[in-house]
Each structure stands twice: as C-alpha cells, then as structure tokens.
C-alpha cells in the first residue's frame, strides 16, 4: 500500500518548485539584460556606420535598402520621426517625406487615365523623370517605404499584388477576387474582352460583364469599340506601358 507524502514532504516539494521558478526568472532576466546590452552596442555601431557611409546611403538606392535592413534587425526606424539623430545625420526623413509628396502628385496627375491604380514600376519611372533635376536615383524599395508612410492619410495609398505585378492604389476602391483575376489576365496584352474572360476564367457571361462594368465605373478600365470583330475591348492603363499615359510630360 502506497503511503501518501506527509506535510513536510509537500512543503519541501513546494519549496523546490519555488526555487526552480526563481532560478528560471533570474536566468530569463540575465538573458534579457544581455540582449538589451547587445542591442545597445549594435545601435551604437549602426550610428558609426551611418556617419561613415552617409553619402552612400543618400545617393545609392541599393546601399540605402541594405541600410534599412540593418536598421530593422536592431529595431531602429530612421523614418519614425523627422526630428532627432537620423534626420540630422542623414536627412533621410526629409528624403522620404519629399518622395511621398511626389508620389501623391504623380498619382493625382495620372488618376484620370488609370482610375487611381498604377503599377509600381510605372510609378518609379515617372518619379525618375520628375527627379532628374535633383539627380537622386530612387528604387522600388524607396517608393514602398515612402508609400508606407502615406497610410496616415487614411484610405488609399497602398500597394497590392496582382499576379506577379505590384500596383499602387491611391483611391479607396476595394477590389475583390474577380477584379484581381481580370487585372491579372489583362497583363498579357493590356486589355480583355468578355469572351476572353469567360473562356480563360471559366465564368458565365453575366459574371464577366458585371465585374468588367464595375471596373469601368470605378475608372480603372477604358472601353474600345472600334474593332471589326465587334468585340468590346476593356483596356487597363494600370497594367499597360508607362508610355500610354497622356500628359506625363507635365509631371
């Protein structure tokens, strides 16, 4: 017959558990303190690195992207504030705020032609044309970082992925799965027809027409009825070449 542990045994077991718990808490605290110390060292080294390579960070887009990755690993966001150490050292906050304003201007200027949806590649090209005077090269990474700061403006100004292409949305229009599939299909030649959507996506005529007409109403599509076959083409400037934009010289 097994004997139940006495009061003394229970007390000893409880004391042992308390000791193990305290030991675990002490080990966790030591690890946390060590990690904080290491992060402080990394941040200090990062500041020294930034001082040494200031010009490369400002002028070289690839180098700038790698610098941002280094910052992210140690929990530093040079764009969190337009004041303080990073702004004074690199002026990097000013760079992205200025780029954000230019992104808004390009999106507004091209909206009559694309309905507020422009490919990230085209946006970068138009920004590059606009910034020739300042001779500062920008990359897609720069545009993505600047756009992320525009979210404070509310709806719109976000990057969505359609197929293998990134599109920048500057209006609060919500695209559903059907709209995304049509945009992805249109990437091949810049336009689609109702028959093509039916055949390629295995949709009914009503479903294809409804989705296309919604995109047309939102200003994301343009219609072309001037073909001999009599089939209406729905063109999508947001997946067409940048050269299709009218009046880009005014940017």
From TrEMBL:
GO biological process, one term: protein transport to vacuole involved in ubiquitin-dependent protein catabolic process via the multivesicular body sorting pathway
Matches recorded under InterPro entries: ESCRT-2_cplx_Snf8, Snf8/Vps36, WH-like_DNA-bd_sf, WH_DNA-bd_sf
A UniProt-annotated Pfam family: EAP30
Keyword set, alphabetical order: Protein transport, Transport
Keyword Protease found: no
Gene Ontology CC: one annotated term: ESCRT II complex
Subunit structure: Component of the endosomal sorting complex required for transport II (ESCRT-II).
Similarity section: Belongs to the SNF8 family.
UniProt function note: Component of the endosomal sorting complex required for transport II (ESCRT-II), which is required for multivesicular body (MVB) formation and sorting of endosomal cargo proteins into MVBs.
Record's protein name: Vacuolar protein sorting-associated protein
Protein species of origin: Nicotiana tabacum
Name of the encoding gene: LOC107760095
